[in-house]
Amino acid sequence: MKMFKWVAATFIVVALASQVFAQSRIKDIVTLQSARDNQLIGYGLVVGLPGTGDSLRNAPFTETSMRSMLDSLGIATESGRARLNNVAAVIVTANFPAFMRHGSRIDVDVSSLGDASSLEGGQLVMTPLRGGDGEIYAVAQGPVSTSGFFARGQAESVSQGTPTSGRIVNGAIVEKEVQSNGHEVHQITLQLRNPDYTTAVAITDAINQFSRNNYGGITAREVDARTVLVTKPKNITSARFVASIEALPIAIDSPARVVLDSSTGTVVIGQDVRVTPVAVSHGALTVRVTETPTISQPNPFTLGETAVEPLTNIEVTQEGTGMGIVNGASLNSLVEGLNQLGVGPRETIAILQTIKNAGALQADLVVQ
Prior knowledge:
The protein is α+β, with helices and mostly antiparallel strands. It folds into three domains: 8-15 and 257-289 and 314-367, no CATH class; 38-174, no CATH class; 181-251, Alpha-Beta Plaits. It has helices spanning 26-29, 60-72, 197-215, 238-245, 331-340, 345-357, and strands at residues 2-7, 15-16, 23-25, 30-32, 38-47, 87-96, 105-112, 123-130, 136-143, 145-146, 149-152, 157-160, 165-174, 187-192, 220-222, 227-231, 249-251, 257-261, 266-269, 274-291, 294-296, 307-309, 312-328, 361-362, 364-367. It has a six-stranded antiparallel beta barrel with strand order 5-6-7-13-9-8. The two termini are 38 Å apart. Residues 1-20 have low confidence and may be disordered. This is Flagellar P-ring protein.
């Protein structure tokens, strides 16, 4: 007998966000336009794998790369296909932070490109990392550390995590610096991580108040919801001036927003979210499908055949149906109104989407 059951209610923790007019430092809510990171990428080989590398028949580029590497080392290789399985072709990526100097080290991520089953225990061979302009900025090499594992027997295999991707801490050495003229900049551009006009004006006012008290004039002006321009005063370096203003406290504001993650059932509701009075009907639907096939046997000494006759039973139950009034004049009243209906996070997602369609949800609804 086979039984299948669908339940329309899933219970996962509901997260609540409250950040209205919270005090934060300027350095925590903005980034310097000249201090952007860069991304690097490279192609390399991981060697020394315990039989978990690429099968060279299915990944011919691995064999080609291996022969090319041996040729560059002055080792002649014979013609014909190799049968090694301890080598894997990988893509190496890294985030190149701003102000990195020659000889500094950065972390790199390594991901399998072929059909290798695991990179655990492998060693990345020297791999140049290039930027978007095609120039080499770093060189990576070192042992690969993975967070998963893979084991295989004759009849079964098991894996946990992602053994085909790993990380090398401090695995790349910076060979070329990104040219920066930060010490010559006279106008500093601050970009808000979360654009908001109220917060941009608050940053401008705080910097100008600091400038009046210390330099005798205003230095900042807001451009839009994301950008604030600051003019560096005379007789001070850019680094020292930025250090003096980045710790100023700012009362940040954020728009009313509800974020719904349908895959995990997570609901994040901002403090400013409001719901006009609305009636909501809710009910949990359960569908149960039961298979009880019967076997039909022919009479003795007949030419009949044994047959299986399917028999399906379907039961539908609906519990907790009811209608309630949801009036979200505040965050607490909104949550209490939904809890009184006995809804779970996934049902809350459906209810909030319906309330938004009805025009009663006064917030930005983001569905992930």
